[in-house]
Amino acid sequence: DYVFGIESNTIDLYNAIAKNIVKSSLYGINGTIFAYGQTSSGKTHTMKGSEQIPGIIGLSVNDIFHYIAESIHDREYLLKVSYLEIYNEEIKDLLNPQKLKLKIHEDIYRGVVVSNLREEMVSSPNHIFQLMKYGEEKRHIGATNMNDFSSRSHTIFRMNIQSTDKTNGSIQMSTLTLVDLAGSERVSSTGAEGVRLKEGTHINKSLMTLSNVISKLSDEKVQKKHIPYRDSKLTRILQTSLGGNSKTAIICTITPAVTHQEESISTLMFARRAKKVKNNYKINEVADANTMIKKYEVEILQLRDQL
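RESULT FIELD:
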């Protein structure tokens, strides 16, 4: 949809592709944003940024609280965040690192979720940034020939948003998923050995599965057949985001270096396939008995007024 060159900055990209998704998440629509590309092409800079230059995650968090402040008279909001990493195909809770062997299951309202994952109730952007800083300290990073601080895992930051309409009591629930993927890498370029080589193998395998899922979703002949979401933890967790109930944006990062031309072309081919994937998102509204009664009471009062 857009191409951002070397002179562009993250706020331009955020306003073009992410802002609408973030705002929709406050009205019961699931949203997902993630960056895909080779190692050292700018994914973490784009998604997480720095204190001086906030990334997509920081800009999203600030926007959400800004929107809530504007609509405080219409709806009441409850926000919870979780932060996990997938390292060597194991899920690690970055907000509670002691929890091991976390399992994935499906929830009727939220789609695919990780069980026993710590969810922290939050009330301000600073609260979220403190939690993320704590989680970042537990994350796996390491040096390679291409990057001194290479991401050795995929991280998934999730905000569960529940809001109640003050007029009729109806409840909307949504999940905003912001993902910083580890980069695909060539051993010849990164000089990976030992532990780094094992990490790179797992990273490449999960990214290959992601590419395979996107490829099958983009092929109308294959769509109704088996989609291999379960072949990796990453694609299983992102199942709702890929061809499901979510507004999803994919940021593909490439480096202008001629030596990485092959990887850049591969990333652009992934982007071309991803553009063909169709998601069917909807507003996730929950109505229990009490909510329905309140809703009918309001409708009756409105009808009486009209009479």
